[in-house]
UniProtKB/TrEMBL annotation:
It comes from the Eukaryota. Pfam families: F-box, Kelch_FKB95. The gene is LOC110714179. It comes from Chenopodium quinoa (Quinoa). Residues 27-66 form the F-box domain. This is F-box domain-containing protein.
């Protein structure tokens, strides 16, 4: 095939020239960024259609960093779900600011290799979501990690964990991902955890005898990581281990906190809330001063439909159940009852179980 060298030269010239064109004609780029960054997130897709420079800007770390530093970030909720009929995972996103028109939208393009895996972790750093580990009926635990860039709407393969894991704890603390315990560890020391640093784009492995293997939940509060495990004995026993970043060590916590941690958790204003789904669904709060669990409210058995997961945006707690049914609770710290309002989000046309929910702010 004969090509025209002038066409290639013209294309390169056009791309070079476009990089030097102003974002907005007649304005310095810093002023243009000041203006564009204030466009609501729901219109960012439209901005990306204007030009290549605008698209590159909206997808860039510079854009994300500018909006965070100037308190312009808007948090959307991402739910990892499983369809029991197909036994496949799927991912959905919700813009909670569209109150009346709020609806879940499906995210396409999940990596085919992880569609039927179980025991995967779901975590965030900045504007990226991570799918980590997991296993299947005919597949041992894996160390694979996949990354979804929310701004670019693309999936890619990320550096693998130091250890293959499934059904493990996973949190983001101080901009690093901690993958903790779990099953399928191909090592002589199963009491281990891995940390991922996005600055070096690499994992580092650690071990500690106090790490629990069968982890059901994990959360960060007050600069510490809490992981929970529950035995299958009757009655079941709950074990909680705490990691203190300042000491770099894990230790078992006392029985007071373990006694009431019986479900999914969320942290609001450095206070931990638990959704107890053992007898109906009720929201509990951990009172640090008295070291006891305080019941706040009981939820309707119809909305949201259990089993549920929780996520927080500001002082609002989103309780999301089967079929992505959801209730929003607004926490008022100054009120003795601490609960000032509740509302619901319309059901989505699916019957999936919700595995995990996370927020990403852009």
């Amino acid at each position: 095939m004969i090509t025209d060298p002038s066409a290639s030269s013209f294309s390169s010239y056009s791309e070079t020239e476009s990089r030097h064109l102003p974002l907005i004609s007649g304005l310095p780029d810093d002023i243009a960024l000041f203006c564009l960054a204030r466009v609501p997130r729901k219109y960012h897709t439209v901005l990306k259609c204007v030009s290549k420079r605008w698209r590159d800007l909206v997808c860039s770390e510079e854009w994300w960093d500018y909006r965070q530093k100037n308190n312009l970030g808007e948090s959307w909720i991402y739910a990892l779900c499983r369809d029991k009929s197909t036994d496949q995972v799927s991912c959905y996103v919700l813009d909670p600011s569209s109150s009346r028109q709020a609806c879940w939208k499906s995210i396409c393009g999940l990596p085919p290799r992880c569609l039927k895996r179980k025991g995967m972790a779901f975590e965030t750093i900045g504007k990226k979501l991570y799918l980590l580990g997991g296993c299947g009926w005919s597949e041992d635990a894996t160390d694979e990690v996949y990354c979804y860039d929310v701004a670019m709407n693309t999936w890619s393969e990320a550096p693998s964990m130091s250890t293959a894991r499934c059904y493990f704890g996973c949190v983001n603390m101080d901009g690093k991902i901690y993958s903790i315990g779990g099953y399928g560890l191909e090592t002589s020391d199963p009491h281990s955890w891995d940390t991922y640093d996005p600055r070096t784009n690499s994992w580092e492995s650690h071990s500690d005898p106090n790490i629990i293997l069968d982890i059901e939940d994990s959360v960060v509060m007050g600069g510490k990581i809490y992981i929970r495990s529950r035995t299958s004995t009757i009655p079941p026993h709950v074990y909680i281990a705490v990691y203190d970043l300042s000491s770099g060590k894990w230790q078992q916590t006392d029985a007071d906190m373990a006694s009431g941690w019986l479900g999914p958790t969320v942290v609001v204003d450095d206070t931990i809330y638990v959704l107890d789904q053992s007898l109906g669904s009720k929201l509990m709060m951990w009172q640090k001063n008295t070291r006891e669990w305080i019941p706040l409210c009981r939820l309707s058995p119809l909305l949201p439909r259990p089993p549920c997961q929780m996520v927080a945006i500001g002082r609002k707690i989103f309780i999301i159940g089967k079929g992505l049914s959801a209730v929003v609770l607004d926490i008022n710290v100054g009120n003795a009852d601490r609960m000032i309002a509740s509302s619901s989000i319309p059901n989505f046309s699916c019957d999936d179980d919700v595995i995990c929910c996370k927020c990403v702010s852009i």
